[in-house]
Amino acid sequence: MPFHDGKPLAGWRVLVPRGGPWGDGVAAALRARGATPIVAPMINFAPTDDQPALEAALAKLAAGGFDWVTVTSATTVDVLASYGAVIPASTKVAAVGETTAAALVAAGYHADIVPSEDNSARGLLEEWEAATEGQKGLRVLALRSAIAKQVLSIGLARIGHHVEAVVAYRTVGVPVAAKVVDDVRAGNVHAVLVTSGSVAEQVQQQLGPIPESILVAAIGPQTQRDAAQIGLRVDVIARERSAESLIDALVEAATTRA
After folding, report:
1. Among the listed residues 191, 241, 222, the one whose alpha carbon sits nearest the alpha carbon of residue 74
2. Where is the Tetrapyrrole biosynthesis uroporphyrinogen III synthase domain (predicted)?
3. pLDDT tens-digit map of 7-25
């Protein structure tokens, strides 16, 4: 495929599986590189099944009852903002990655730890002791989605911290338009972005099997592993767990294919 005016994704139709600000930002970045984004949200977020538990945890947080709060997604930040949650200055915040940290700052919160290498719960756990100078017995509020593996909360409890793990939201699948399904199955899409295990599951369920001609790009190694478990092929993995890195990986793959 020829490039035009230095736009490496000229002519590419790319499926963006998330809407909202994230989807809009990715769509704009793809257009800047010449691609035509197809924004088709495949997951949405619903309130937790146990709102009283979340409300109680957030009240305890506001009252200074936790030394740390861990935030593992930008969606968790949306939940905090929607509840008007207060994080006192005495409580430190651990963000699982740069995207989550940016969302915290944008919402008026702060981030004290962001993993420098692996932007994941496992990466955060690996850097925890150094970041907290080996302190033990810290009171930690671990906010998570209903389907998330409790890697962080179990790991922190194992090394001697008092962890309260609370579900902040549920992830639900969203059916995509029939035309999107038809376009993917006919190979009329050049790439599909996969941004989480829950997105991978929806891509496989609604669109699979993905034709070999379509490039499947995952936002990180954990997403690739989650995809593999449900039989979704991944061709490209972003070097960092960010939208920018995901698009860079797509551009690199497009350049190789050209």
Report:
1. 241
2. 26-247
3. 999 999 999 998 887 888 8
Name the residue with tokens 């702060």. 110
Query: Cis link prior to 209 (omega < 30° from 0)?
Result: yes
Backbone phi and psi for residue 139, each to the nearest 5 degrees, phi listed first: -90, 115
If we measure between CA atoms, which residue out of 78, 90, 79, 76 comes closest to residue 121?
76
Contact yes or no for 109/77 (Cβ under 8 A): yes
Q: Which pLDDT band, with edges at 50, 70 and 90, does 59 fall under?
A: very high
Least confident of 42-46, 78-82, 117-121, 205-209: 117-121
Rounded CA-CA distance 119/220 in Å is: 9
The secondary structure element, H or E, covering residue 92 is strand 92-95
Query: Is residue 134 within a helix (H) or strand (E), and if so which, with residue range?
Result: none
Hey, is 28 helix, strand or coil?
helix
Distant-in-sequence contacts of 122-129, Cβ < 8 A, 24+ apart: 122/151, 122/155, 122/222, 123/96, 123/97, 124/70, 124/94, 124/96, 124/152, 125/151, 125/152, 125/155, 125/156, 128/94, 128/155, 128/156, 128/159, 129/159
Residues 85-141 have pLDDT tens digits of 999 999 999 998 777 888 899 899 999 988 876 667 777 888 888 888 889 999 999
Phi and psi at 177, nearest 5°, equal: -65, 150
**All structural domains of the chain:** 13-42+175-257 (3.40.50.10090), 46-171 (3.40.50.10090)
Q: Provide the pairing of β-strand 162-173 with 43-47.
A: antiparallel
